[in-house]
Structure formats: C-alpha cells, structure tokens
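Page 37, continued from 36.
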C-alpha cells in the first residue's frame, strides 16, 4: 500500500531545552537527518511559553538550566502534556538517571553520548 510509509515519513517536532550553545548546535546537526523539525529554548520559562503555542512529539531536556532543573520540570510536562516523550540529557550527575526515570522521563542519555545512542532513543520513542 502506498500509505504504509506515511507515518515513517511524518515530520516530528522536537524541542531541545538546553542552555549550552555548543550542545544545541551538536544536537541540531545530529537531528537534521532524522526527518524532524527542531526548535530550541534555553530556559524552563521559555519552554513553558513554547508549549503554550506548539506541542512537540519529543523533548530533549537538559538537567541544569539557568532557571531550574530539568528533572523538576518533568512532573510539569507529564501533568500538562502527557503525550510528549522526554529524553533527559545530563553530564553532571550519574544519579540523575534514576531520578529522571522515576520522575517520568522516557529515557536518559548521559553526556557525552553517541550519535547512535541519540538516534536509537529517538527512533524507539517516535516510531
């Protein structure tokens, strides 16, 4: 059938909540081949404002942000936008993985992560 690939070819919206410019650029490069529309915000407040206007399929959420912790933001996301999938990314605290997953993140990527791990996580969550 010609429509069988329609869902595979659908454009997914991804929101990156990350305050480090280099990491935003890297994630954009890694995601450009994944048939996704990537938007970036640098703070949790900006993320809340973005979510009032658009609903991404997936959020890549850094933990340490200028106005709070991504781990604390997970509960807000799950309560208000339960269909959005969440990949928590952090390079600071190894214990953050357990806390993030318990809070409701769908998966956790420790920095530095490989392109393959990122793509595998996205493919698992969006397909």
């Amino acid at each position: 059938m010609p429509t069988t690939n329609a869902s595979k070819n659908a454009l997914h919206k991804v929101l990156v909540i990350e305050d480090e410019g280099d990491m935003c650029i890297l994630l954009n490069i890694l995601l450009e081949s994944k048939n996704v529309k990537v938007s970036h915000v640098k703070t949790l407040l900006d993320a809340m404002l973005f979510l009032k206007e658009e609903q991404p399929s997936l959020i890549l959420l850094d933990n340490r942000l200028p106005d709070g912790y991504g781990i604390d933001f997970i509960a807000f996301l799950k309560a208000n936008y339960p269909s959005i999938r969440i990949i928590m990314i952090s390079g600071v605290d190894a214990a953050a993985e357990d806390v993030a997953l318990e809070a409701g993140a769908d998966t956790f990527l420790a920095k530095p992560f490989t392109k393959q791990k990122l793509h595998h996580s996205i493919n698992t969550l969006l397909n």
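The chain has one domain: 16-126. Flag for discussion at group meeting. The CA atoms of residues 64 and 70 lie 6 Å apart.
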